[in-house]
Amino acid sequence: MNNRKVRVRFAPSPTGPLHMGGVRTALFNYLFAKKNNGDFLLRIEDTDQHRYVSGAEEYIMKSLEWCGLKVDEGIREGGPHSPYRQSERKGIYKQYADQLVESGDAYYAFDSAEELDRLRHDAEANEQNFIYNATTRLNLRNSFTLSTEEVRQKLDSGEHYVIRFCMPEDQVVTEEDIIRGEVSFKTSLLDDKVLYKSDGMPTYHLANVVDDHLMKITHVIRGEEWLSSMPLHVLLYRALGWKETMPRFAHLPLILKPIGKGKLSKRDGDKMGFPVFPLLWTDPKSGEISRGYREDGYFPEAFINMLAFLGWNPGTEQELFSLEELTENFSLERVGKSGAKFDPEKAKWFNHQYLIRKADDEIAELFVPILESKGIKCPLNKDKLVHICGLLKERVDFISELWDQSYYFFQAPTAYDAQFTKKRWKQDTNQIIEEALKFLNTLDDWDAVALKEKFSDYVNEKGWSFGSVMNPLRLCLVGAGIGPDLFEIFAILGKKESIQRINSALETIHI
RNA sequence: GGCCCGUUCGUCUAAGGGUUAGGACGCAAGAUUUUCAUUCUUGUAAUAGGAGUUCGAAUCUCCUACGGGCUACCA
User: Fold this and answer.
1) SS3 at position A298
2) In 3D, which of A71, A63, A6, A66 has the Cα closest to residue A43?
3) For residue A420, which nucleotide's C1' is closest to its Cα?
4) Nucleotide B7: nearest residue by CA–C1'?
5) Residue with smallest Cα–C1' gap to B2
6) Which of A199, A285, A408, A454 is the most exposed place for a label (fewest CB within 10 A)?
7) Which of A13, A192, A182 lies closest to A87, judged by CA?
8) Whole-number Å distance between alpha carbons of A182 and A406
9) Helix (H, G, I), strand (E, B) or coil at A391
């Protein structure tokens, strides 16, 4: 229909921390934009002053940044359509509301919130619906029932008013959704939505349509919760005379609770022990803290990859995609229609995949702060730490879990796992270990491979079973039945420390 | 209640009328291993139900059921 440059926007309200569903919406917008060499804008929709939460805006930007979603135009980046915060655009909406009134597509209404509430309640009591539209507007206080004179007078006297869209009486609005195909709505069932509030602010609907038009947005990609307002928006574009450049719509399926019914909420995360927000969030009022994916140890690449697969798939069997690869392969046509239950286990799996693909030295670097938090200060040379990380990364999903797998490298055992001891430390074990210790003392080449070879020969020579020697030795060095190849542990610990640990164990363990 | 959207293994999903309905997560078993893991192999398990259209339906149509969203001077 035209070859305008693709421009999409992510338009959250700063009413709290950005939910992972919101991040996914941002991600899909970003991917679509970049795939089509377009622009990705961030617009803050803060037309509701009551729900404004301080810090939310900053949080949104930090979250996108952490995820690697670079914004082309936004409140911080600026751009040709500044400002990008709707509260700062307040002045530009009124003229469009006025335009609609003039063309007869909107009208003034003076009903109080209480009056309308009462009508809704009454209708509900009678198992009816109250809809402010053609069926009722002639019984209410508005430009239809009041004379031009009266309306003028009320307006001039400063009485509170709103501007409502005049929903056509009997039309069918049909619009193509990129994900869902054609969707139709009967206007007789829709209501005369408020476009302009009595506080002088536009509602979401007006501001959204006006800004998308002014900012030359070509595709509106948003959550399914907006699908029902698509006809209103379509009608607004038409009424405003912007039919030709109206963006195309794509409504994304929702992210649902892992178990049970309904969409994913903050509660579910608390209950089941997973984050629903990208970053840690401290509520400015209550001080309540919500965990974040970042702080929980997720890599942004893993988080993004996981999110992308909630509702989208490439149609191949590849599951691991970098942001660049996602961008290359993304298409709205491959986004599913149905809501996706979030699976925290799969999220961990994604993180594991990214973790094991990281270079050992990078992992080591990330592990250092955790070691320091445990009071371990550069206990080993860097090579050894890198080696440890390489040895153990397969076993964990998060960097922080490395500690549970490796603590014995940094501190000698102070206790010995009772169960393992019982199972592996037999009557003759002390004697065997003492002999083995003598042999180990004679060895100077304390390299894992050499050690393994020489010690294995020795064990064979003595006619011992491997298990009867190795398991107790593991207990001596580690204090428990965990860890990688024992000779690797020997090598990393070094001869002196290894011998010392065996001696201590021999002194401590009695059966 | 009304309107709109949806429904393939427990979960994420593939299969654009013809496949033994495929993959991944999870779970289970086996193999490997000096422990614990890893790894490898195998298994587990699905087209919501009912009508139609068709030689043939997971795929198209309708009905039912179930799920979800919206129904504010909130976004």
Assistant:
1) coil
2) A71
3) B35
4) A338
5) A129
6) A285
7) A13
8) 57
9) helix
Q: What is the pLDDT of residues A197-220, one digit of tens each?
A: 999 999 999 999 999 999 999 999
What residue has token string 């530009």? A92
Cross-strand partners of A335 = A312
| A502 CA vs B29 C1’ separation (Å) | 38
Catalytic residues of A: 266
Distance CA A236, CA A232 (A): 6
Q: Which residue has the tokens 């309540």?
A: A288
For the sheet with A39-42, list strands across it.
Answer: A39-42, A7-10, A219-223, A248-252, A172-177, A181-186
Longest Cα–Cα distance of chain A, Å, equals 112
pLDDT digits 0-9 by tens, A101-126:
999 999 999 999 999 999 999 988 88
The CB-based long-range contact list for A138-141 (8 Å cut-off, 24+ gap) reads A140/A109, A140/A111, A141/A109, A141/A110, A141/A111, A141/A115
Task: Identify the helix (H) or strand (E) that includes residue A162.
Answer: strand A162-165
Of A219, A225, A205, A211, the closest CA to residue A248 belongs to: A219
Distance A302 CA to B41 C1' (A): 28
Interface predicted TM-score of the whole assembly (ipTM), two decimals: 0.95
The residues with which A222 forms a beta bridge, in sequence order, are A251
The sheet with strand A162-165 has its strands ordered as A106-109, A162-165, A194-196
The mean pLDDT of chain A is 94
The spacing between the Cα labelled CA in A302 and the C1' in B37, in angstroms, equals: 22
Structure tokens at A474: 């593991």
Distance CA A321, CA A314 (A): 10
Rounded to a whole number, what is the distance in angstroms from the first to the last CA of chain A? 85
- Quote the pLDDT of residue A183: 94
Residue nearest to nucleotide B4 (CA to C1'): A228
Task: Specify the 3-state DSSP secondary structure of A40.
Answer: strand
- Rounded to whole angstroms, the distance from the CA of residue A377 to the C1' of nucleotide B34 is 31
Q: Which residues pair with A39 in a beta bridge?
A: A7
- Closest residue, CA to C1' of B35: A481
A219 bridge partner residues: A8, A248
Angle subtended at Cα A348 by Cα A365 and Cα A67, rounded to the nearest 5 degrees = 65
3-state secondary structure of A46: coil
What is the rounded CA–CA span in Å between residue A332 and residue A142? 42
Q: Which of strand B's nucleotides are less than 7 A from any protein C-beta? A: 1-8, 10-15, 22-26, 34-39, 67-75
